Amino acid sequence: MDWNDYLSMPFTQMVITETLRMGNIITGVMRKAMKDVEIKGYLIPKGWCVLTYIRSVHLDETLYETPYQFNPWRWQDKDTNISSFTPFGGGQRLCPGLDLARLEASIFLHHFVTKFRWVAEDVPLSTFLQ
């Protein structure tokens, strides 16, 4: 693979983005209020900690249509820089390894799909329900 191959994999990027949305690596982020803050009628006193549970944001039905369905096509013609999509953080705390992580995932998926073959086994459902 070379750089042009990587750039010609838009569907792979949509699969990676959707995977990050559904199975975000970061569970949440915690911040300490440096002063009293009011948000939507709620007071967060100075010194209190606030936990933003990112997984719940990525599965919010008001932000993502059918959020529990794996649908990479939802990212077609959409910008992944929207404020509700934060698998790598955001703003000043955006992960500097964002592009490297996407590149590595793309290379892995390319080799996984093109070099390996697998067949589903006929395993009875009762095997998983024990």
How would you describe this structure to a colleague?
The protein is α+β, with helices and mostly antiparallel strands and 130 residues long. The protein has a single domain (3-127), classed as Cytochrome p450, CATH 1.10.630.10. The protein has 4 helices and 4 strands, in the order ααββββαα. It has helices at residues 3-7, 10-22, 54-58, 98-115, and strands at residues 28-32, 37-39, 42-44, 49-53. The strands form 2 sheets. It has a two-stranded antiparallel ribbon. The radius of gyration is 19 Å and the shape is extended. The mean pLDDT is 88.
Order of helices and strands: HHEEEEHH
User: Strands across the major sheet, in which order?
Assistant: 1-4
Low-confidence stretches: none
**Head-to-tail CA distance between termini:** 44 Å
**Which range does the strand content fall in?**
5-15%
How many structural domains?
Answer: 1
In short:
By secondary structure, this protein is of the alpha+beta class. It is built from four helices and four strands. The strands form two sheets. It has a two-stranded antiparallel sheet with strand order 1-4. Strands 2-3 form a two-stranded antiparallel ribbon.
List keywords for this structure.
130 residues, alpha+beta, Cytochrome p450, two-stranded antiparallel ribbon, 4 helices, extended
Topology:
Elements: H1 3-7, H2 10-22, E1 28-32, E2 37-39, E3 42-44, E4 49-53, H3 54-58, H4 98-115
Antiparallel strand pairs: 1-4, 2-3
